[in-house]
Amino acid sequence: MKWQNLRAARVRAVRLAFLTCALVALALSAPLAAPRLAPVAAAQAERFEGQWLVEYQTDGGKTSLTLRFNENRVGQDGRKHESFWNTSRDVAPESLQGLTREQALSASGTNVRFDLRRDAGTFACEGWFRQGNGSGHFVFVPDQGFAAELARRGVGTPDTRQLFRLAMAEVGLALLDELKSAGYERPTLEQLVRMGEHGVRADYVRGLSGLGYRLGTADALVRMRDHGVSLEYVGELRDAGFRDLQAEELVRTRDHGVTPSFIRELRAAGFETPSLDGLISVRDHGVTPDFIKKLRAEGYDSLSLEQLIHIRDHGVTVEFIRELQDLGYSHLQVEQLIRMRDHGVTSDFIRRAKSRGTAPTVEELIYMRDRGSN
Q1: Which one, 54, 217, 223, 274, has least CB within 10 Å?
Q2: Percentage of the chain with pLDDT > 90?
Q3: Distance in angstroms (rounded) separating the CA atoms of residues 368 and 374
Q4: Phi, psi of 28, deg, nearest 5
Q5: Neighbours of 67 (CB within 10 A)
């Protein structure tokens, strides 16, 4: 019995020694515990997943692609931040690498996988297509070679979040090349991201240069784009006779709603196109082609732009003119209309005045209103 106990004790000792050696070997072979990630490393470890929608065109037009991304994260300030991207582009069908026409137009529907490659990274997509319409999810795979190239050019080293934003905005090396060619200052990394998100791309910079505009800074380009100064807008203004406008003039004109179609409609109405400031004044005072057309239908067809502005400023509307006509006050002079409006002579007041069985003149109505007569 003692011999059996001794033998069992020796077996346990051997097993314990073996287990100890194994644990020591495992500890020596394992890598050191990873230190806590620095902010940049943590950012690069982020994962970006979202949704895609595609309307596949077969008539020679562009295929419509929408990418959506929504995230909730806690920032360095400890506060919760919500981000949402929703971008839509017309793309060539062949840019959806791995998606065939047969898959996209499948009558019964089929699972698909394809890649959308951009300089900053690839959107690896999977989902479902049926009769030209598809949807699914994507995972963004950053391109570290592109990140290294940005660093080499002195722009900076983007983290995964910045690469994702650049890819969503479809910004790549072509924009940097165009900026350099046009003599712009080299943008910072954040400026490059901001340009992309505000719609400044290589073709916009190239087009502005072709029209004679070299703004010099990334911020100036973003401002032009934000205010709706498109290449088409600049070109149509030039066709309308407004050439060699300064960048600030373009922004101001666009902000005040002076469009090429507005200029054409004024000319079609028989007005000589005023200066740029004149056009802005006409637009600011609410004199629209529709307002002019309706006034002419009521018999006011020989008013100048100055008179139209004057009428508009004093609140004389087409509805007011029609109400007066219904009450028997037709073919009034512009100044009579303005005086009645200024003195508060409304259609209700006229009805009360006429209820006495009289038909007061315009001057009598103004006199009665000024003295508070009912």
Answers
A1: 217
A2: 74
A3: 8
A4: -70, -35
A5: 21
Extract the tokens encoding 161. 């979040």
The secondary structure of 183-235 as a DSSP string is TPPPPPHHHHHHHHHTT--HHHHHHHHHTT----SHHHHHHHHHTT--HHHHH
Percent share of the chain, pLDDT over 70:
86
Q: What is the Cα–Cα distance from 271 to 290, expressed in whole angstroms? A: 14
* Each residue's pLDDT tens digit, 122-151: 999 999 999 999 999 999 999 999 999 999
- Work out the burial of residue 249: count CB atoms within 10 Å of its CB; fewer than 13 is exposed, 13-18 middle, 19 or more buried: middle
Vertex 170, ends 165 and 171: CA angle to 5°? 80
Q: In angstroms, what is the C-alpha Rg of the chain?
A: 36
Beta carbons of 73 and 81 less than 8 angstroms apart: yes
Q: Which helix (H) or strand (E) holds 310?
A: helix 305-313
Q: What are phi and psi of 35, to 5 degrees?
A: -70, 165
Pairing of the two strands 49-55 and 80-91? unpaired
For the chain, the residue count is 374
pLDDT, one tens digit per residue, over 242-294 is: 988 999 999 999 999 999 999 999 999 999 888 999 999 999 999 999 999 99
> Tens digit of pLDDT for each residue in 103-120?
999 999 999 999 999 999
List all residues 6 or more positions away from 205 whose beta carbon is below 8 Å from its beta carbon. 175, 178, 179, 182, 184, 221
Contact 243, 249 (CB under 8 A): no
Helix (H, G, I), strand (E, B) or coil at 132: coil
CA distance 358 to 57: 71
Dig out the tokens for 270 from the structure: 């028989």
Rounded Cα gap, residues 195 and 305, in angstroms: 40
